[in-house]
Amino acid sequence: MRLGMRMGLNSRQLGGSRLDPAAKLYIAAVEAALGATIESALPSATNPKKIISDFYKAEKDAGRYALHKRIYLPIYNNLAANAVDAITRDSGSFVNTPTTAMGYVQGNGTNQYFDFNVSPAGMALTPSSGGFGWLSPGGGSGVGLVNVGCENSSFQSVIGQYINTTGTRMVYNQSSDAGVLQPGAAAVTQNHGVLSMQRHSGQRNIRRRVSSGVSSLASNVSADAGTVPTVTMTAMACKRESSLFGYSNVRYGAWWVNAGWSNTDDDEFTLNLKTLWENLTGLTLP
Amino acid sequence: MIGYITTPEVSAQISAAVREAQISRGIAPYLAIHGFPITSGEHVGKHFLPFEDSAITTPLHANTRLADFPEFAALIAMLGGLEARVDLSPDAILQPEP
């Protein structure tokens, strides 16, 4: 009897799911938000649950999972599912109903954005360590838009990234609108691909991944300064206390925040994220 | 931008009602509706509440739409109906630089 029961249990284990446990929780949260299976929302994906699980496993195997603060995948053509954080399963908020599609979300560039509902301080970023970024398959127009960012008043405490006529600028926790700059890149296409901004080991780094590979856009060495913002982090615009500016009409397939990591880790993560997004959506990054 | 010209008080009421409609159903608020102070033009002092046509068809929690919520009709009626929407220039809600 005991042997038979053991055999029965083993049969269930062999036929059961081997999905990463955190992935299972995320998938369950997304499906609850969808009111449908994740397969129905991602018709181009072959076994989306395994694809998502493989992403989690890769980040855990690399030792980066504990560094992740938030990862949003607004790819499900559903605002509720798009707002589920893959790390905590907490929900961000889409403000004023940006347009959803399979693979991305897109704001109108005038009044729509995404609120993480948690501040960089609340995510335990520090003046010496933190990172953020996004994945964009394209779209948008103009410059002067902010992809991810927030700040307390008067630039005393800023974490964010924007592109204007002088180039791509990352500002991490500085008391002036300085930051690290990739000069001369004023085209909206500079927002496309996987853009990562990292504060780590005394450096500020902007790195960009496109289909042809990954490269450093800008890097500098600078001392810690300022204080970490206490307003909530936003995407598709920058929140400055209670007002917003820099509304973006670029298409987004992912946003994230992390405790800062090395360029090596950054490149591995952005490759994993690119693979995740492309395999789930059937789309290709520029 | 398509939406409503309304008072700051009604704008706040709408925002709170949208939030409450989610929380009362045990759903963490994933959708927020925020109005903007109108800073120039003939409607200075009032609020602009964005409401594009896409908002009506956007898939929400459990594959619902805004019109599936009983509160939706009352909120739209408070604003004067869908026909009361206007097309406002984005310049009208620009905030002055600090």
Quick structural summary:
The complex is a heterodimer of chains A (286) and B (98). With 286 residues, chain A is an alpha+beta fold. Chain A has helices at residues 2-15, 21-34, 38-41, 48-61, 79-82, 263-281; strands at residues 68-72, 93-95, 99-101, 104-106, 113-115, 130-136, 145-151, 158-164, 167-172, 180-183, 193-200, 203-210, 213-221, 234-235, 238-240, 243-245, 251-252, 254-258.
In terms of topology, how is this protein built?
The complex is a heterodimer of chains A (286) and B (98).
Chain A (H helix, E strand, L loop, with lengths): L1 H14 L5 H14 L3 H4 L6 H14 L6 E5 L6 H4 L10 E3 L3 E3 L2 E3 L6 E3 L14 E7 L8 E7 L6 E7 L2 E6 L7 E4 L9 E8 L2 E8 L2 E9 L12 E2 L2 E3 L2 E3 L5 E2 L1 E5 L4 H19 L5
Parallel strand pairs in A: 7-15
Antiparallel strand pairs in A: 1-18, 2-5, 3-4, 4-17, 5-14, 6-11, 6-18, 7-8, 7-14, 8-9, 9-10, 11-12, 12-13, 15-16
Helix pairs in contact in A: 2-4, 4-6
Chain B lengths: L1 E5 L1 H16 L7 E2 L3 E2 L9 E4 L2 H5 L12 H10 L6 E2 L11
Antiparallel strand pairs in B: 1-4, 1-5, 3-4
Helix pairs in contact in B: 1-3
Structural class of chain A: alpha+beta
Structural class of chain B: alpha+beta
Helix and strand string of chain B, N-terminal first? Answer: EHEEEHHE
What gross morphology of chain B would you assign?
A: elongated
The greatest interface here is: A-B, 32 and 26 residues
Beta strand count of chain B: 5
Report the average pLDDT across residues of chain A: 88
CA radius of gyration of chain B is: 14 Å
Given the structure, what is the number of helices of chain A?
A: 6
Biggest beta-sheet profile of chain B = 4 strands, antiparallel
Key structural traits:
heterodimer, A: alpha+beta, 6-stranded antiparallel β-sheet, 6 helices, 31% strand, globular, B: 98 residues, 4-stranded antiparallel β-sheet, 3 helices, 5 strands
